[in-house]
Amino acid sequence: MATTLEKFDSTGGFSIDKTIVVDEDRNAKDFNTLEVKNKNYSDSSSTTYILRGLNTSTLDLDGLGTQITIESNTINFITGHVVAVNAAGTVYAAKFETSVFCDSVGATTVHSSFQTVIKDAVPVGETWDIQPVGATNRFSYTTIRSGTTSTIKWIVKTEVVSIDWA
Q1: Which residues are paired to 84 by β-bridges?
Q2: Of 117, 63, 109, whose CA–CA distance to 91 is shortest?
Q3: Which of 59, 64, 82, 99 could make an SS bond with 53 (beta carbons 3.0 to 4.6 A apart)?
Q4: Model pLDDT for residues 83-127, shown as the tens digit of each residue
Q5: Is residue 83 packed enough to be buried (19+ CB in 10 Å), middle (13-18) or exposed (0-12)?
Q6: Is 13 exposed, middle or buried (0-12, 13-18, 19+ CB in 10 A)?
Q7: DSSP letters for 69-113
Q8: Does an H or E element contain 23, and which?
Q9: pLDDT at 2
Q10: Neighbour-count burial for 109-134, b at 16+ CB within 10 Å, e otherwise
Q11: Backbone phi, then psi, for 78, in 5-degree steps?
């Protein structure tokens, strides 16, 4: 059966399943992740994610444990902007700059990490901690809450700049 291709009509913006992802002013919004590539260099990319979690956990993309995928044979520079908050409005905020190596079999190693604490209002006697962690072809952050039963909500906007080294 023949198919007639129609021109794309973007009047009012581009939408998927009635959710606008590019509006009439060319603003992109409501993406799950965003990958940027230079068409001249297929061996590198930059992808932005949002990870979340509660209390002591490994942060994930979807509430089901899904972590950021790291391709084998890559070197990655990962920047994470962290905010943690409890119901009383107590805030912890930080920025991580992390170097991650993933070898040919997927072993993902955190080479180094630099953390800048922006705001630390955690009450005396409580511990709120976050650290980057690698797993087989995966990356995330692990969090620890102790000294309180208060729910701590964690969110990290994470950008992964990746280059294939093999």
Answers
A1: 92, 154
A2: 117
A3: 59
A4: 999 999 999 999 999 999 999 999 999 999 999 999 999 999 999
A5: middle
A6: middle
A7: E--TTEEEEEEEEEEEEETT--EEEEEEEEEEEE-TT--EEEEEE
A8: strand 19-23
A9: 63
A10: ebeeeeeeeeeeebeeeeebebebbb
A11: -120, 125
Nearest-angstrom CA–CA distance, 44 and 34: 14
Whether pLDDT at 153 is above 50: yes
Nearby residues of 73 by Cβ (< 8 Å), 6 or more positions away = 102, 103, 104, 164, 165, 166
Rounded Cα gap, residues 83 and 25, in angstroms = 30
pLDDT value, residue 8: 46
Q: What is the pLDDT of residue 38?
A: 86
Q: Tell me what percent of the residues of the chain surpass a pLDDT of 90.
A: 73
Place of tokens 């119901």: 87
The full set of domains in the chain, from first to last, is 27-163 (2.60.40)
Return d(Cα 43, Cα 112) in angstroms, integer.
22
Per the DSSP assignment, residues forming a β-bridge with 75 are: 101, 163
